[in-house]
Amino acid sequence: MPADQIRKAMILAAGRGTRMKHLTDALPKPLVRVAGKPLIDYVLDKAKAAGVSECVVNLCYLGEAIRSRLEKRTDMTFSFSVEEQALETGGGVKKALPLLGNEPFFVLNSDPLWTEPAEPALERLKKAWDPETADAVLMLQPMARVFGHDGTGDYFIENGKPRRRIAGETSAPYVFAGAQILCPRLFDGSPDGKFRLTELYDKAEKAGRLKCIVHDGDWFHVGTPEAAELAEKVFGGGHFG
C-alpha cells in the first residue's frame, strides 16, 4: 500500500496513568484536558489531518468513558479493543490486529502533545514509509526539545537508522515520541498476552528494517500533573482540568 493510502490508526488508550495522581482517580488519562481539550482529541485531530478515517482504540481503565467521548465524534469511525487487563503496547496492538487489517497503520500514543513548525509529523512519517525496506518507522524527538519527560533518551541514529540504547549506555540523544507506522507482518511470531512494542522494534532493527524520522518541533510528554501544567502554558490560556 502506498503511504498516502494509510487510512487506519491504532490509538493506545488502555493505560492507568498512575503518575497523573489525582487527575486520573475518576478520569482515564486520555480524557485529561489541556487547554480545555482532552489529550486524545489532540492526537485524533492530527490523525484526521493525515488522512486517517478509521481508528481502533484499546480500552481498559475507565474505558467506557473514552468510548462515550469518541462516539460523539462524527469525522472518523471508531472500533474498540477491550482488554480485561492492560496488555502493554505490543500486546494491545496484537490483540487489535483483526480490526486493523492487513495493511500498514499508524500507532499513536494518546498522551503526548507536539508542535509542528513546518510539515506535520504524521505526513513526514508517511513519506518515510516504504514497505520494501521497513517494517516500522518511528518518530524520534531530540532530547533537547523534550518537555515533561524525566527519563533518558531511547535511541541513537547511526548510518541513518535508529539503534536502541542498550544496557551500560547511560543516555541517548533521541526519545521515542509515541507515533509510528507499523506493518502487520512485524507481529509474525510475536508472543501472546502482555508485551511491549520495543521487542518488535528490536527485531526490526536487527533485520535492518527499522527506520525513523526526527521531529522538528517541541514535544511534551503529559505524564504527570506537573507536565500537564507545563503543556497548559504552551497550548492554552491557563485553563486546565
Descriptive report:
- By secondary structure, the protein is of the alpha/beta class.
- Helices cover 25% and strands 26% of the residues.
- The chain has six helices and 14 strands.
- The radius of gyration is 17 Å and the shape is globular.
- It starts with 7 loop residues before the first strand and ends in a 6-residue tail after the last helix.
| Cα-to-Cα separation, first versus last residue | 41 Å
> What's the tally of helices?
6
Main structural class: alpha/beta
CATH architecture: Alpha-Beta Complex
Largest sheet: 7 strands, mixed
* Overall pLDDT level: 91
Radius of gyration: 17 Å
Helical content, roughly?
10-25%
What strand line-up does the widest sheet have? 5-4-1-6-12-8-13
How many DSSP-defined strands?
14
CATH superfamily: Spore Coat Polysaccharide Biosynthesis Protein SpsA, Chain A
Indicate the low-confidence ranges by residue numbers.
Answer: none
Q: Could you spell the SSE succession in H and E letters?
A: EEEHEHEHEEHEEEEEHEEH
